Amino acid sequence: MVALDGEPKAASGGGSNSNRGAMAEPITLSSGHRMPIVGLGVWRMETQSIRDLILSALTIGYRHLDCAADYQNEAEVGEALAEAFRTGLVKREEVFITTKLWNSDHGHVLEACKDSLKKLQLDYLDLYLVHFPVATRHTGVGTTASALGDDGVLDIDITISLETTWHAMEELVNLGLVRSIGISNYDIFLTRDCLAYSKIKPSVNQIETHPYFQRDSLVKFCQKHGICVTAHTPIGGAAANAEWFGTISCLDDPVIKTLAEKYNKTVAQLILRWGIQRNTVVIPKTSKVERLHENFKLFDFAISDEDMEEIKGIDRKYRTNQPAKFWGIDLYA
């Protein structure tokens, strides 16, 4: 089972900085490996700013980076990590690094993993996820543009099952290339199936979840069966998703704003703390150093049970990250 119980405590680790006391104990995954409960997502992080942001994050105390082949910035992340290791800012074993298998590489799992390792300049991954539960037409390892048919609809490969993909993921663990494996954007049905056919159980299911899209049934199902839930889009996407998908964010919700004032915290801090108190891992993305500090200071307060219930009442079952805009098909329909 995933060790998720108990109030976060101060953690030890490499490096020294004034924010060390603001950290929490990592959670223990079903694989036996430990994952920090707060990470930095690098989705849509501009390549020219990645070095400074990652080095700043590591200096602040972040020890968890969430990457993906689809983000098209693994090489830049790798350069920053190499510098951090070379200068002694952190040791490799102190940083938990996640990346993801893209849709078009379901039939080329080993090659895709090795490509990500090469770009990230790593010998192993801490966590490798199946990014979406769909295989699409192969377009070449390292290329992640959506494979669309002549009709403008995602060209789904119906010859590769998710079970086949998962067994290839398991082989990565056997080869020592990956320590833990997991899934992403899987619903209850697909997660149940993965548990049934897996030899190595998924350690993580990374999903969109935030106060407007709480997905309580899926979160509880995963946690009941020893799968850690990581919340991508943990504050509801904010400006990034508004720009891409035209969605709104819970950052502007009056209930959230009132509670943030009550606890003398920013709205983002209140939302991220809510995610942590649900026993989910949060991986907010930011391109501003001041927000790196803000998003990491989550362990000097706790939201009361009464206020957690109030937040529960603002759920809109509202997805903000909708790839149908690019794929011509709603895979969540």
Number of strands: 10
Structural class by helix and strand composition: alpha/beta
State which percent range the strand residues make up: 5-15%
Unreliable segments of 5+ consecutive residues: 4-22
The amount of helix comes to: 25-40%
Order of strands across the biggest sheet? Answer: 3-4-5-6-7-8-9-10
User: Largest sheet, if any?
Assistant: 8 strands, parallel
Number of helices: 12
Report the order of strands and helices.
EEEHEHEHEHEHEHEHHHEHHH
Rounded mean pLDDT score: 90
Rg, Cα atoms, Å: 19 Å
What spatial form do the alpha-carbon principal axes imply? globular
First-residue to last-residue Cα separation: 31 Å
Overview of the molecule:
There is one protein chain. This protein has 333 residues and is an alpha/beta fold. Helices cover 36% and strands 12% of the residues. The protein contains 12 helices and 10 strands. The chain has helices at 47-60, 74-87, 109-120, 162-174, 188-197, 216-224, 238-245, 254-262, 267-277, 289-296, 305-312, 324-327, and strands at 27-28, 34-35, 40-41, 64-66, 96-101, 125-130, 178-184, 204-208, 228-232, 281-282. The strands form 2 sheets. It has an 8-stranded parallel sheet with strand order 3-4-5-6-7-8-9-10. It has a two-stranded antiparallel ribbon with strand order 1-2. Strand 3 (40-41), helix 1 and strand 4 (64-66) form a beta-alpha-beta unit. The longest helix is centred in the N-terminal third of the chain and has 14 residues, at 47-60. The two termini are 31 Å apart. Residues 4-22 have low confidence and may be disordered.
